[in-house]
Specification:
This protein has helices at residues 38-55, 94-102, 111-123, 182-185, 187-200, 205-212, 221-227, 231-255, 271-284, 306-316, and strands at residues 2-8, 12-19, 24-31, 63-70, 73-75, 80-84, 89-92, 106-110, 131-136, 140-146, 149-150, 259-263, 296-299. The chain has 317 residues and is of the alpha/beta class. It folds into two domains: 2-119 and 305-316, Nucleotidyltransferase, domain 5 (2-Layer Sandwich); 127-300, 2-Layer Sandwich (Nucleotidyltransferase, domain 5). β12, α9 (271-284) and β13 form a beta-alpha-beta unit. The longest helix has 25 residues, at 231-255. The chain is globular.
């Protein structure tokens, strides 16, 4: 059996033809035109789904269902995007419209939840029932799975973990508050911290790398400098990994999940990110003194494909 998974983002729409085991057969992407109207977005997605099916050697009639992950508040039962700011959608019946255009069942879900579902499926561990996926990107996203089911909350947007407060009156967040985890642990925050450290330490390798990059830091800059023995780079990495760990400790204390995976662009730093985060969490989370089962913290497996696989799984699960 074949399914289509579609991951709708603010700038691009990614889609793939997926089998019942969660394997991507083919995938592609197109530019998002959501801000024009939901009707145009629906037509684009429907046409894109047809092309993905053909690229995978079948027609839409041979596809069991289409799953779509969108940012924002989602009424998954009725297939409605209640609100998605970066897509300019308000009470948009995306699921029904695309189903009418394609003739296939359409399942709609929050994009972070779809990514979490994809990573949960990839984990393939029957002992893991409670699971959380964290994405360190432009913001900090989260998807929550409880007893092997996605937890959406009463309004469809549960999992806004990036807006846990980790420092009162701290850095400003895009949500309007100050001190949110996202303001410290996102890739955007890491770049800001790196550029700030470079400006304060003009003789550092961090400052040199920023200068060589046209005066701009990246999510890699501090990690590269730290690996080369630069004290400023190491300071930024130490502070950043502590910020990531502080939020994870709150998440663990609240949910006590079996496992947490960390994805997003920053996760590409691999052991340089995950090892200090694990060490800090192990030292400070509530319960570290007991023999209770500890939450496993690991890197995400699917990367940018998690949203595609998870969206397709909406129809399988």
């Amino acid at each position: 059996m074949k399914y289509i998974g579609i991951d709708v983002g603010g700038t691009a729409i990614k889609a793939g033809l997926v089998d019942e085991k969660g394997n991507i057969i083919v995938k592609d992407s197109i530019t998002t035109k959501a801000r024009e109207s939901y009707e145009i977005l629906s037509a684009d997605i429907a046409e894109f789904a047809k092309k993905i099916a053909l690229k995978g050697g079948c027609t839409l009639d041979e596809v069991e269902s289409i799953g779509i992950g969108c940012p924002g508040a989602i009424d998954h039962e009725n297939g409605v995007v209640i609100y998605a700011n970066n897509l300019n959608l308000l009470n948009a019946p995306l699921g029904k419209t695309i189903s009418e255009l394609t003739g296939r069942p359409v399942y709609l879900g929050n994009d972070a939840n779809c990514a979490a579902l994809g990573e949960f499926f990839a984990l393939n561990n029957d002992e893991v029932q409670n699971f959380i996926a964290i994405t360190l990107g432009t913001g900090v996203g989260g998807g929550i799975i409880i007893n092997k089911h996605i937890f959406t909350g009463s309004n469809g947007i549960a999992g806004e973990l990036g807006h846990i407060l980790i420092k009162a009156d701290g850095e400003s967040c895009t949500c309007g508050r100050k001190g949110c985890w996202e303001a410290y642990a996102s890739a955007t925050a890491l770049i800001r911290q790196t550029e700030r450290a470079g400006a304060e330490n003009p003789d550092s390798l961090v400052a040199k790398l920023i200068e060589e990059n046209g005066g701009k830091g990246s999510g890699k800059t501090a990690f590269i400098a730290a690996r080369r023995g630069d004290a400023t780079g190491q300071m930024v990495v130490d502070n950043y990994t502590r910020y990531v760990a502080e939020g994870l400790i709150d998440v663990i204390n609240i949910f006590q999940p079996d496992a947490i995976v960390i994805g997003g662009g920053v996760s590409k730093e691999g052991e340089g990110l995950i090892n200090p985060v694990r060490d800090y969490v192990k030292k400070y989370f509530y319960g570290n003194f007991s023999n209770i089962k500890k939450t496993e913290i690991r890197l995400a497996q699917l990367g940018n494909d998690a949203g595609i696989v998870g969206a397709a799984l909406l129809g399988i699960k």
